Amino acid sequence: MKKILLFLALTIVVSASAKKEKRTKVEMLTSMGSITIELYNETPLHRDNFIKLVKEGYYNDLLFHRVIADFMIQGGDPDSKNAPEGKMLGEGGPGYTIEAEFRFPQLFHKRGVLAAAREGDDTNPEKRSSGSQFYIVWGQTFSRSDLEKITQRVEQHSAGAIVFPDEVKKYYMKYGGTPHLDGSYTVFGEVTKGIEVVNAIQQVDTDNNDRPIEDVRILNVVIK
Fold it and tell me: What single string gives the DSSP state of each residue in 75-97?
């Protein structure tokens, strides 16, 4: 009987743990296709804020207002909803910022991750995240020598707070990403389906302000 009770207790603990670790999924339907994103539990402030905004319909009809090939696609500016052609975008938000949640090297800027945009270090030394603006990384792959130069600069700039493990370096060389952003911007999710849509968006033609010539719109975002 004791063995049975112990087994049941362990089963309950394992089940509870599995349930606790389950990630929230969101589906982002864009004018160029659908993207499914899992939100990381390791960054609860960003996760919960993103879920809140999704439930409010905050992102519906906004643009990917900043797109840079071989780098990233950025959205979440509420001023982009009805923005006329050529309007400068990127300053809008819900009126608050979020405390940084850096979890490097567990979470890093690999291809397909969701991360929070923010104001620069001069006005934002705490590296607090925008309340709504985000970007999805595309990045590029690196040779070992080029990657070593980038990672050494990041490590020196961080005064040793950021050190790139071999596993992370190997990922950047094989699959790609934006290593120069590690330790400076909060990563809080990743694309699990629709990476080809991200690829297509990051290749669109843009103007001198990196805004797509033809609007790429987030039609709606829902919790799956």
Answer: E--GGGTTPPTT-------SS-E
